[in-house]
Amino acid sequence: MAKTVNVWIDGHHLEVPDTMTIIEAADKYGINIPRLCYHPDLPPTANCGVCVVEMAGSPTPKRACCTPVAEGMKVSTNSKKLRSYRKTLVEMILSNHEVVCPTCAANNKCELQTLANNLGVDPDAMPLILKKETVDHSSLSIIRDVNKCIACGRCITVCNEVQTVYALTFADRGIDAHVDTAFSNGMANSPCVNCGQCTVYCPTGALREKNDLDPVWEAILDPEKHVIVQEAPSIRVSLGEEFGMPFGSVTPKKMYAALRKIGFDSVMDTNFTADLTILEEGTECVAKLVAGEKRPLITSCSPGWIKFMETYYPDLADCVSTAKSPMSMFGVLAKTYYAQENKIDPAKIVSVAIMPCTAKKFEAARPELSDSGYQDTDYVLTTRELIRMIKEAGIDFANIPEEEPDAGMSFYSGAGTIFGATGGVMEAALRSAYFLVTGKDLDNVEIQAVRGFEGVKEAAINVPGFGEVRVAVAHGLSNARKVMDKVREGLATKGESPWHFIEIMACPGGCVGGGGQPYGNDIASRARRGLALYQEDRDLPVRLSHRNPEVTKIYERFLGAPNSPLALKLLHTYYYRRSVNTGQITEQATHKHH
Q1: Which residues are registered as beta bridge partners of 180?
Q2: Residue 311: CB atoms within 10 Å
Q3: What are the sequence ranges of the domains in the chain?
Q4: Catalytic pick among 301, 319, 357, 507
Q5: From 141, 234, 321, 351, active-site residue
Q6: Helix axes of 270-291 and 424-438: crossing angle, nearest 10 degrees
Q7: Please, what CATH class does the domain formed by 214-588 belong to?
Q8: What mean pLDDT, rounded, does the chain reach?
């Protein structure tokens, strides 16, 4: 246990654990030290130097982000010398930065912009020395603009240490040091899994999602097109915060109203196909359990995780559920079942998905996801893009009257909505797997053992008629790597996995922390959004996926039954092997139905 020490910051006496840094101690007690490269979710890089403070007895300023506290330490955070030093540093950064704030995606969310304003930086104080470089548009999901990069290193830290993807690195040294991909081959030719965590932690908008607003607006304004929209579970708990509503507000009906006012022809909900996914994946899981399969079943709804698996664990691809993600299930059904029910030519349907996830843009473009005879999902917009769309349309989101979605593929259960939080898919699946094995519903549907923000959670659930079902939940790809290494080791040494069923989400916190969520998407905000989803689950009249009446209807009228031949054709997929150097496909790793 850490011992406490006495320190003084700007004359305030603080008693803090000796494991803290100066900036952590200051933050805990509400003392603001300006910073740029530092982020509380990430290990400090000490790259920018903005957080320097003066210490009694030290001839030179110290960086607060990496200097530990010590007994008797006296720190000054605001002196004439420090103000001049910080201001000069920010001026130097701006002199090599493309300053296009009004049109930047990070405008009003940019930490450099805020810091420059707070420090009273004169934009004419230093000449512009920026040598414009080509913007990397190679990725289907993420744009990398080196002209806005300040070399803070946050993107490298989150990519390499939190996600263990290793797509980004520092190239060159000294004044020439800059963020790059290996051999400068671009994001599309790197191991990047498109998770977008780099865009979340980038302080300046140098990394951002690929913008698909123009083609979506064009489709909406085309009278020949029928544009249908779906929205992922976590969108309803992150939109409100951008429009002045209390953090964690659950706003599905305002979301439907805004989308209808924007001009979408049909407004439905991805939560419906989250419930459908549970029936397909749950049936797959139960079949494995009954057969005594030694290889686990691993969830497949996170596209960043899927590409990570294809790159680093293709030998375990046959352990991954063949069920498509809820987004892709919705996309294929929009151009088959929905088109059939509403007598619409599927060639005229444009399917748009609102997702918290930049990797969904990559998923939508996967060529195998075209079982409708068309590209199943035409466009994916992130939460940030939807926010811009709502603002462009001049919609007062906080005060717009609530509306219901269109019927057909929109009703959802509490199990469907908790898909957005880490552990939610596992909990939803277990609720229905219990029914599929026993024919009875769980008395208590809340499975607390799989909830929470611990990196890897394990639980054993007793299912009558089968026995103990061992499960694991991992969020963040470094944690996924830990789980997959144990699965690989167990299969190699004992011939079986440590777990029967595993949930993996690429982003820390699950979809509430997706790479396309609003800026300022830290771990604390992800936790609050997750709690809001669990509250909506408690408030909904139906909390079990297999009790969703629209899911029952689609099986009766169209699909037949879970894992039926038509369900397998439309709702299931296969995976590839990819190069760990370029992320490109090398061969197919699984058949569609294993």
Answers
A1: 169
A2: 22
A3: 4-78, 101-109+130-209, 214-588
A4: 301
A5: 321
A6: 60
A7: alpha beta
A8: 95
